[in-house]
């Protein structure tokens, strides 16, 4: 009898031991599954690419603010896809009516009190368009993408992703995307020292299955007269050459034209592009000598850097760190015409 | 010929509208060209800068397209026709201001008055960060500089920077 009892006790203890073991094993298994699930959650670049697709293909209306303004300036963007084409309608919500509509390679501007006009433009420059049209795969050479965590923007659960420049020659960004629609909700531009230079923030986002019928109606209206930009000459160029470009940037345009505001002044012009920001470089004849203190002007993410060499003046305009502008100017060389 | 030209000139200046030069104008292509050139000269003198000299050819072709001119009233119509291509050019010039709107409408701030605003630090929002310390630059009057001169220089510089920024925005918008 005793033996039986003993056996039972042993069996019980063994069972106990086993159950705890099996429990441990199942617990371990659960952990593994959980880890796998974590691995299956999208990577930062996947979120960014979804954001990109959402921005280009969805029908939505956003109301947003920019921190750049002296007073918060509410603006609205209505986006839709009509017959497979993107249509973007933009307006300021306060003050006089200022609005624009872009579709089919043209952008028309309307302002209270002045006749509307149209520019030929294939380039979307609306809010978030720069991050929504960036090639993130290619961009990995110069940026790291890191998920910062979840947040709530405009009442929506969002994910914050940081796009960090690998060197000091370009700004970094933090992009917040709605976790439901993946549309961008906020964009901070950070300096290399991590201070916020510029902030765009959505306060209201509505996305729809179907395109806004009013937007469709807008595309059927006749547009105001097209204003042509004076043809720029490409004769005798390039005389100026960039000796250095920050990684990822390429020269996309080089010409000689006259400044729109100041027709009498011809400038040599070079445009750089890295898919997210554009930099303009102007070379002209020096008119007035500048103090050292007047050479760098910065507002938000935009820098306007001036350098004078003998009788010429070089201006760099763009959303880049000052050091980049300085280095770009230093690398600029005059190429002998015989080389061309 | 010169006399008729003089009369044409006065016609443009709305001084002496006689039927004789008008008749001469109707009949003579060279005179029509002269007439349109005079118009151009007048525009230039009135400081409408961006006159494209090639326009005289456009004017001629416009005139060529016109049916035969018979009465003075038709001449008026022609005058309108003659001026029209110029109008396009002028409106283009006048529209320069609108490129500022183009930039601002696109959601990008054109940094107007950001140079002049730089000395007043209380101007919050318009954040001007001069990475190089201002030093004596803050004080409006320095020892050597004539205050009026520096004011003018500052304004010139401000205008130029604005022109550059607007051009930058425009170049981006029309980028291919």
- Binned strand content of chain A: 35-45%
Q: Biggest interface and which pair forms it?
A: A-B, 63 and 53 residues
- Strands of chain B, total number: 0
Strand content of chain B: under 5%
Q: What's the number of helices of chain B?
A: 7
> Strand-and-helix sequence of chain B, N→C?
HHHHHHH
Biggest sheet layout of chain B: none
Distance between the termini of chain A: 109 Å
Q: Helices and strands of chain A: which structural class?
A: alpha+beta
Itemize the secondary structure elements and their pairings.
The complex is a heterodimer of chains A (340) and B (176).
Chain A: H1 2-40, H2 44-57, E1 59-66, E2 75-82, E3 85-92, E4 98-103, E5 106-111, E6 114-120, H3 129-132, H4 136-139, E7 143-153, E8 156-165, E9 172-178, E10 184-190, E11 196-208, H5 213-220, E12 240-242, E13 250-258, E14 266-273, E15 278-285, E16 296-299, E17 302-309, E18 312-318, H6 322-331, E19 332-334
Antiparallel strand pairs in A: 1-2, 1-11, 2-3, 3-4, 4-5, 5-6, 7-8, 8-9, 9-10, 10-11, 12-19, 13-14, 14-15, 15-18, 16-17, 17-18
Chain B: H1 2-12, H2 19-27, H3 29-45, H4 55-65, H5 72-94, H6 96-105, H7 147-173
What does this structure look like?
The complex is a heterodimer of chains A (340) and B (176). With 340 residues, chain A is an alpha+beta fold. In chain A, 23% of the residues lie in helices and 41% in strands. Chain A has 6 helices and 19 strands. Chain A has an 11-stranded antiparallel β-sheet. Mean pLDDT of chain A is 85; it is low at 19-36. Helices cover 61% and strands 0% of the residues of chain B. Chain B is elongated and about 55 Å long. Chains A and B meet through strand 4, strand 5, strand 6, strand 14 and strand 15 of A and helix 6 and helix 7 of B.
